[in-house]
Structures are given as structure tokens and as C-alpha cells.
Amino acid sequence: MADRKKTPDLLASVLNEPVLLGEDEVKAVVKVEEAKAKPQKKSKPKPKKETASPPKAAPVWEYMTVTFREYDGWRPRLINGKELRGWKSQPVIHDYLNQMGVVGWELVSMGDRHRNQKEAYFKRQISSEASPTIK
């Protein structure tokens, strides 16, 4: 049993008593302390492969202005500045707005231009299909 390696006395270190280490043990402790002291190099993040698709084109809109006049209810009289024939027989405003929604127009804003006139501003996204005709 003479060839047995000396082990550090842990109990002595806990009780603050001096510990006598052999030369091999001192080298081992120094290596451990040096390893703790050296900051490890952080690996650089790998650049991400850019596989993003090309940006989508912004939507293209068409716009329309409808002017309503009072005649037994608010009825469309002008579309983009052109007077409708027989405008007095056109549907009243709430029915007309529903019709425009069915054919893809979205009401963007509405205002009173004059006391007896209202203007509605519509938009819709342009598609490859033929646009429906407006009454």
C-alpha cells in the first residue's frame, strides 16, 4: 500500500486547518484554477442563410367619388363628377352602399360638401378580373 496516491484532506479544508499537498496535487490544483480563470471563447453565431422571398408588391387601388343628393331620400347623383341619368330613380343611400360592397367597393370616408349634398369616397383593390359596371 505504499504506492497509494495521497488524496487531499477535505475535512481539514472545511475546518480551516492547513493541508500539506504533494507536488502532483499542487500541479493539479493549479491547472484547475487556471482553467477557471481563463474565459472560454464564445463561438460566433453562424450567419443565417437568407431564404426570404422577394417582397410582395404593394396593393394597387382604384378610387371612386359618389355624390348623393336629397330627393325622397339620399340618392347617388354624380359618380366621379359625371351625372347619372335618371338619378332620381336610383336606390337610396343605404341600399346603394350595400350594392357597392357586393361588387368590391369599400367605403373609406363620407362628408357633407353642402347642406343638401353628401360625398362618399370608395376604394377597391384592382384585380385581373374585369371590373363590374356601376349603375
Short description:
The chain has 135 residues and is α+β, with helices and mostly antiparallel strands.
Describe the structure.
It is a single chain. This protein has 135 residues and is of the alpha+beta class. The protein has a domain at 61-125. It is 22% helix and 27% strand. It contains three helices and five strands, in the order H-H-E-E-E-H-E-E. It has helices spanning 10-14, 23-37, 93-102, and strands spanning 61-70, 74-79, 82-83, 106-114, 117-125. Strands 3-2-1-5-4 form a five-stranded antiparallel sheet, covered by helices on one side.
Per DSSP E runs of 2 or more residues, the count of β-strands stands at 5
Helix and strand composition category: alpha+beta
The chain-level mean pLDDT equals 81
Helix content bin:
10-25%
Beta percentage is 25-35%
Shape: rod-shaped
Question: What are the low-pLDDT stretches, counting only 5+ consecutive residues below 50?
Answer: 130-135
